[in-house]
Each structure stands twice: as C-alpha cells, then as structure tokens.
Amino acid sequence: MSNAKGALVLFSGGQDSTTCAAWALARYERVETIGFDYGQRHAVELAVRPAVLQALRTMSPEWNACLGEDHMLDLGLLGRISDTSLTKDVAIAMQENGLPNTFVPGRNLLFMMVAATLAYRRGLDVLVGGMCETDYSGYPDCRNDTMQSLQATLNLGMATDLRIETPLMWIDKAQTWELARELGGEALVEMVRTETHTCYLGERGELHDWGYGCGACPACELRAKGYRAFREKA
Ligand code: ZN
C-alpha cells in the first residue's frame, strides 16, 4: 500500500477507467470515483457506471472497504461549447488537422482540473486517469507530457502536492486486458468484458467475445483487437 492519503479515479464506466479503478483499489486505502455528464450523445457509459462500481465491490472485501464515494458531476458546459461527434449528431470522421472529430478539445484538461478541485476538498492526493499514448487516436490531451505539465500547473495553482497517475499510458489494449487479469484474475476480466462500455455509438445489443458494442467504431475496433491479442497470447 502506498502512503498517499487516497486516490480519485476519473471513472467513465469504460474498460480503461474500470481497469484504472481496480489498479487504484489494489494500491490505495481510500479510493473515490468521479464521472462527468457533458452532454455525450450516448449516455450508455454513464448508465453502466453504478453496476460496474457495484461489481468492483464484489471482487474482494478489501476493495469493497477501500471504495468510497462516487461523484457524478454535470459538465454540460463542455457539450455546449464544443462541436464533436461525441456531443453532436454528426458522423465520426477525420478532420483537416489530423484528429478525428471524436476529439473533444480540452476535455481531459477540464476533467483533471475539476477532479483536482474535488480532491482538494476530499483530502485525496492522487488523481488516476486512463490516458494512454500507445494506441490512442492521437488525442493531444492523452499525452504523458500533457499530464505531467498539467500536474505541475495544478500544484502551482492550488499549492498542493497532487500526483497524476496514468497506469495505462505506455501499454496497449491487449496489455490493459492483461492488467485486469493481474489485478483481479479472470473474474475481473469477465466483469470488464460484460459490464463496461466503450462503444462510441452507444450500441449495447449484442455481447461479443470482447464485450458489448457496434463492433465497427474506432473504440470497438481497438477493444476487440486488444481482446483477441490478449487471448491469443494466453
Ligand atoms: Zn462501437
């Protein structure tokens, strides 16, 4: 166990943030979660959050004891000021600047800033996020440099000693499945597979070997490819 006071996990109900929550539960005595409603077109992720948190509690008595409050915050402002395929009814496409229009400018920056403000009040000194530079879609706010710089800014601006932890930063999707197995065995892998939600289109009709989703959007493709690579290695 670390000597940190406790961790606040940015938790969306997806595969990555669920793995991050398990990672935090294995390390910190106090773990709280934070989620954001920012006018996502498909609120399926938000809808699965309570079930995923409940499932994490049933994974072990220790995790159940460590897992504290869940904070769900309304950031509708972000949906109102941004124009992306995640918040508006437009098709997923590549933009002229080389970024897909699933990129919500400023999202992770705002999330971390709001999380830091809440952590301040809750007496938590670690922020955990699922940002990843390995097989990401090129989102600049997922870069390690961005997170390091933001950590410095937050600590300067709030006179705190917060640490931003990003356990998935240098691993790919197959390794994210592996990490879940290391943390909670096949039971956690199965929980992530059946309870979490990643699909950009909010599709939750059919259970595939890698979980629910449309199977065709970039998020589903990554998740399916990672799951298959994980199973092939095993
Ligand atoms: Zn999908």
Characterise the protein shown here.
By secondary structure, this protein is an alpha/beta fold. The chain is built from 8 helices and 7 strands, in the order E-H-E-H-H-E-H-H-E-H-E-H-E-E-H. 41% of the residues are buried. The structure holds zinc ion. Zinc ion binds next to helix 8.
Detail the topology: elements first, then pairings:
Elements: E1 7-10, H1 15-25, E2 31-37, H2 44-59, H3 61-66, E3 67-74, H4 76-81, H5 107-122, E4 126-128, H6 144-158, E5 163-165, H7 173-195, E6 207-208, E7 211-212, H8 218-233
Parallel strand pairs: 1-2, 1-4, 2-3, 4-5
Antiparallel strand pairs: 6-7
Helix pairs in contact: 1-7, 2-7, 7-8
Bound molecules: zinc ion.
Features:
Rossmann fold, 5-stranded parallel beta sheet, alpha/beta, 234 residues, 7 strands, two-stranded antiparallel ribbon, binds zinc ion, single chain
